[in-house]
């Protein structure tokens, strides 16, 4: 009987996920608030039903009562987060809150299957991140002075990266984190945000050649320090984000093309300078040659994706733990193996929906400062998703970055909450301005 329940639940979860994803894009068809609210409510129902089915399977397979308690704690969190956010910020974009919760839900399901202890730690981090970032939309809506302090963003970010370069902990050949009071912190996750604020502030002031040259020099310093720390995944995110923001601010094709050529040259140089880059490229080109060593991670990932097929093996039916660092860089492979290719594609489409929402907020903002912030954060989010999934499916060499809101990692989780909260703040700011304008017209 248990096996029947598990098998039926597997297909129901895929249907619910597909329905949620469909609603994620049908939301954009509605212009009136009532229609959008109906879509968001249906999304909430689909998410809670899928969440229940997943934890029913997890409990039946593990027979661990802690799974039930953990499930209930998540239900309370989701209900409180969605409800309180709507109460304190009536003009929020509900679709972005829903997508955050769905990605968190998927992450907790996979993490509980892999390691309940890590899932609980992740839950505590998420709860703390939600509490800490609760005030950010309020700050964005009321503090115009954020556009007046570019060098605090620029110099502060560089200082953090230099500290990591000098005294950071080594992880898989790269200096990524520092230890503080027993906790490990990855500063580059937060410098991503200060970097976008710095660039937005500089281009808000001026986009003449001198301003572009100074901003480019500071941006290049960020990328160079990351390269020296061998954190090439973050370096690529910073580089592409800056180039995109530069083009949006200036509309200059020469900047875009020369930057792209410079990036290609830097990639060739990095290949020649760093042995671990050559190892990753070799593993990407032909992992089957050295399947027991440097090609092991990517081949196990491909085996997992192929084994899962379209509908997945089912929770606890696969072997995702055979993939090294599966809970971080390769969590997408675990999703594909046990929840299926259709489910995994839906996760990607939800991530795309988040990016589209970022871009829509950017398009609605009139001030260049706010427009560039929303655009820059959206680009960072999209590039990170692309790098993570591209490495897992062998589309590009693995870069060691996490899937936002899904992978295990405290720094990544907190920085992503900050990014989404900033965009929420910009959306609320614009809605408040529109309401004030309509009242003034009356």
H/E element string? HHHHHHHEEEHHHHHHHHHH
| Neighbour order of strands in the largest sheet | 1-2-3
Strand residue percentage: under 5%
- Principal-axis shape equals globular
Main sheet overview? 3 strands, antiparallel
Identify low-pLDDT runs.
none
Mean pLDDT: 87
The overall strand count is: 3
Radius of gyration of CA atoms, rounded to a whole number: 22 Å
Class per helix and strand makeup: mainly alpha
Approximate helicity band:
over 70%
Distance between the termini: 64 Å
| Number of helices in the DSSP assignment | 17
Walkthrough of the structure:
The chain is an all-alpha fold and 442 residues long. The protein contains 17 helices and 3 strands. Strands 1-2-3 form a 3-stranded antiparallel β-sheet, covered by helices on one side. 46% of the residues are buried. The model has no long low-confidence stretch (mean pLDDT 87).
């Amino acid at each position: 009987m248990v096996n029947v329940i598990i098998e039926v639940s597997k297909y129901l979860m895929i249907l619910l996920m597909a329905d949620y994803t469909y609603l994620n894009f049908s939301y954009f068809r509605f212009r009136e608030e009532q229609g959008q609210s109906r879509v968001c409510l249906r999304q909430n129902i689909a998410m809670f039903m899928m969440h229940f089915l997943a934890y029913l399977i997890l409990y039946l397979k593990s027979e661990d009562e802690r799974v039930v308690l953990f499930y209930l704690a998540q239900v309370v969190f989701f209900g409180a987060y969605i409800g309180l956010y709507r109460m304190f910020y009536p003009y929020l974009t509900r679709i972005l809150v829903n997508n955050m919760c769905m990605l968190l839900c998927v992450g907790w399901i996979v993490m509980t299957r892999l390691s309940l202890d890590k899932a609980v730690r992740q839950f505590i981090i998420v709860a703390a991140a939600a509490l800490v970032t609760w005030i950010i939309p309020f700050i964005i809506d009321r503090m115009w002075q954020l556009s007046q302090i570019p060098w605090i963003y620029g110099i502060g970010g560089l200082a953090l990266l230099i500290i990591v370069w000098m005294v950071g902990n080594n992880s898989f050949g790269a200096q990524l984190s520092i230890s503080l009071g027993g906790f490990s912190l990855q500063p580059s996750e937060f410098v991503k945000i200060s970097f976008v604020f710095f660039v937005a502030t500089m281009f808000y002031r001026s986009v003449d050649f001198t301003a572009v040259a100074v901003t480019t020099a500071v941006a290049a310093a960020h990328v160079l320090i990351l390269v020296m720390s061998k954190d090439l995944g973050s370096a690529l995110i910073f580089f592409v984000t800056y180039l995109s923001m530069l083009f949006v601010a200036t509309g200059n094709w020469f900047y875009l093309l020369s930057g792209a050529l410079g990036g290609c040259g830097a990639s060739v140089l990095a290949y020649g300078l760093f042995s671990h880059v050559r190892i990753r490229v070799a593993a990407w080109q032909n992992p089957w040659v050295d399947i027991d060593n440097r090609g092991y991670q990517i081949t196990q990932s491909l085996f997992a994706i192929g084994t899962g097929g379209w509908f997945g093996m089912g929770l606890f039916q696969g072997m995702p733990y055979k993939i090294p660092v599966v809970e971080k860089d390769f969590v997408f492979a675990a999703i594909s193996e046990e929840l299926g290719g259709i489910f995994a594609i839906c996760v990607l489409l939800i991530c795309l929906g988040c990016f589209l929402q970022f871009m829509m907020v950017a398009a609605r903002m009139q001030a260049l400062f706010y427009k560039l912030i929303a655009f820059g954060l959206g680009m960072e989010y999209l590039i990170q998703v692309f790098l993570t999934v591209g490495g897992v499916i062998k589309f590009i060499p693995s870069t060691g970055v996490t899937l936002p809101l899904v992978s295990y990692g405290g720094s990544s989780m907190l920085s992503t909450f900050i990014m989404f909260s900033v965009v929420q703040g910009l959306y609320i700011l614009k809605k408040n301005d529109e309401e004030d304008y309509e009242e003034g017209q009356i």
